[in-house]
């Protein structure tokens, strides 16, 4: 922009980041799913994933999950298991696979680091093997904030149902630095909205609520999908007079950020 060249900017990096944010493409109404991933075995862990696991006491669910492709409505793209690799996402991003999507559902373990915000990121399926690239350029199964911002994820709404705030489940989790860093990374990648959890749980009721968020996002306005899903869930709980469904650990662990 011409005004940037003439203005005296006190904190240029933040302005540069704002200006470089991708503009969202015209939405196509499509739904794109990434995940679940192939579990990382101990013998194949990259150095980045090893360091991540060593630091975090809390752990987003990485247990093996069934292939969801057969359960998706016709026309919804799905990148699961071996296709949920960093190398695949990079190539698909270049081809515009995610640009203009209505909803991008990322069933990927997401680590939100409150102590070192820049260390936040997403875990993907392990790569097949040596691709000939030098180590510093080789996909390693972990998408850091810099790599995230380099992708084209210009969709209306990104869902992250397996995000976890850490590295410890204590008062440090109240700090918002890592959360804001991850949200900023998605905004730089072009996402207009992001709905994510602050912790994961194996409770089947929580998983049912997570599914209802996606189901609502298919038809509701992207910036209202989470709120609508929460209201519908609470209304159903009151109707059934089931106090367990009202527990905030089921529905209040989600939050939405939009721009």
Summarize the structure in words.
The strands form two sheets. This protein has a six-stranded mixed sheet with strand order 2-1-3-7-9-10, covered by helices on one side. A four-stranded mixed sheet has the order 6-5-4-8, sandwiched between helices. It contains nine helices and ten strands. α7 (204-217) crosses α8. The model is unreliable at 1-13, 23-27 and 62-70 (pLDDT under 50). The protein has 259 residues and is α/β, with parallel strands linked by helices. A hairpin with a 7-residue loop joins β4 and β5 (121-123).
Topology:
Elements: H1 2-6, H2 12-19, E1 31-37, H3 47-55, E2 77-81, H4 86-94, E3 103-106, E4 110-113, E5 121-123, E6 142-144, H5 145-149, E7 157-160, E8 163-166, H6 177-188, E9 193-197, H7 204-217, H8 225-240, H9 248-251, E10 254-258
Parallel strand pairs: 1-2, 1-3, 3-7, 4-8, 7-9
Antiparallel strand pairs: 4-5, 5-6, 9-10
Helix pairs in contact: 7-8
């Amino acid at each position: 922009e011409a005004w940037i060249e003439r203005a005296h900017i006190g904190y240029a990096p933040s302005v540069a980041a704002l200006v470089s944010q991708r503009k969202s493409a015209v939405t196509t109404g499509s739904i794109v799913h990434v995940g679940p991933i192939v579990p990382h075995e101990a013998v194949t862990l990259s150095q980045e994933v090893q360091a991540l696991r060593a630091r975090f006491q809390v752990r987003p669910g990485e247990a093996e999950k069934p292939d969801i492709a057969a359960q998706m409505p016709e026309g919804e793209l799905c990148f699961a298991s071996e296709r949920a690799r960093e190398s695949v996402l990079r190539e698909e991003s270049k081809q515009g696979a995610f640009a203009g999507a209505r909803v991008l559902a990322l069933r990927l373990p997401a680590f939100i680091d409150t102590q070192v915000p820049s260390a936040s990121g997403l875990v993907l399926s392990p790569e097949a093997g040596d691709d000939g690239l030098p180590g510093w350029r080789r996909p390693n199964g972990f998408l850091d904030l810099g790599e995230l911002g380099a992708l084209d994820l210009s969709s209306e709404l990104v869902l992250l149902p397996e995000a976890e705030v850490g590295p410890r489940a204590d008062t440090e989790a109240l700090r918002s630095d890592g959360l804001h860093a991850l949200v900023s990374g998605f905004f730089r990648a072009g996402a207009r909205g992001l709905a994510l959890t602050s912790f994961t749980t194996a409770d089947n009721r929580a998983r049912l609520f997570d599914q209802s968020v996606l189901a609502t996002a298919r038809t509701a306005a992207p910036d209202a999908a989470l709120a609508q899903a929460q209201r519908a869930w609470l209304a159903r709980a009151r109707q059934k007079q089931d106090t367990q469904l009202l527990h905030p650990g089921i529905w209040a662990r989600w939050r939405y950020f939009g721009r």
